[in-house]
Amino acid sequence: MAISSLKPVELFIRRTFLFLLRTFGGKRSKKNLEIPPSPSILLLRQDRLGDVLMSTFVLEALRKKYPNSRIALLLGKNNTGVIPLLPFEIEIYVYRKNFFRDLKMLRSVRRSKFDVALDLTDKASVTSSVLLTLIGATVRVGIEKENSVVYDITVPRPSQTEVHITERVSELLRPFDIDPSKIDKAPTLRLNVRRKGGLVGLNVSSRTADRSAPPAASAEIAQGVLNMGFREVEVFAAPHDRFRGEETVRLANNDRIRLAPEVKTFAEFAEQVAGCEYLITVDTSIIQIAAAARVPMVLMFKPMTDEHPWSPIGVPFEFHTQYPALSALEPEPVLALFKRLVERTSADARLGRSFAAQPADHS
What we know:
- By secondary structure, the chain is α/β, with parallel strands linked by helices.
- It has two domains: 37-182, Glycogen Phosphorylase B (Rossmann fold); 199-357, 3-Layer(aba) Sandwich (Rossmann fold), CATH 3.40.50.2000.
- Helices cover 35% and strands 15% of the residues.
- The protein has eleven helices and twelve strands.
- The strands form two sheets. A six-stranded parallel beta sheet has the order 3-2-1-4-5-6, with helices on both faces. A six-stranded parallel beta sheet has the order 9-8-7-10-11-12, with helices on both faces.
- Strand 8, helix 8 (242-252) and strand 9 form a beta-alpha-beta unit.
- It is elongated, with a radius of gyration of 22 Å.
- The chain starts with a helix and ends in a 13-residue tail after the last helix.
- Residues 1-7 and 350-363 have low confidence and may be disordered.
């Protein structure tokens, strides 16, 4: 059976589970359930790479609040590549979707007897619900949503279409007496940033085809960047989508437009991105890497109606939505936005202003 045909079945199972959880799950007594003064905390972030990168500001805020507390992170098998990039050394558990290995992991977590389990997802997750039920933390904290029955303490969920993801996730800090309005929400990563003047990164692929850029349009964008006086364009493509990057370079037919070298780890890829002076990218985790490295960027998105776009925090950017889809990408508007970004950030540099000091531009 094709993977696409399995998706409705998966969604049905998830919805059925959440319905049963809400109906029959019940709630533990909340009597005297409070976060202690110096808690041990396990954060759940077993979803995608970009979700982990975006959530690093939560790790930083908790470490600042509780410098001597034990803080651990539960990841999924697909996002462990971020571990070397996390802002500080942290204890890691990994959910692998392997019964025996996950059973061993859960036993280890239960023996640790965490004071707090903090679910960082802002969408109802069957996986998070099951894990929270099994790990045995004294207090379970999460965002108010369909699986809220598994939490002891909840925070309201702001509008998913009107409020940026970082603002929604930052609400989870309130039970720890941390004011979200007073913290820096830009991602924080351990990166060895070696900026290469005149180098522009062009990321053409995302996890799905409808969020990726067509090679012909990408090649025209790359050539347009060179025509503005930049030295070189490095094309990035995910391993599963490398053909898209190769075709972009072939169509560009310019030795100053090259495919980024293949690397072995996600951390090495992050340092490639951090070396760019500017970035042009479709929607993917690369946005969070560039934001952490303070690389100004142009974002190319397909139309979105179900969630506020994941625009970067703490760095200048321009935003292009391509209608009706990214498959119809037009180079001219992207290049116009890139030119505007360069002019804007060059003016900042002349005036001695740091990119990191500027408020996020959500244009």
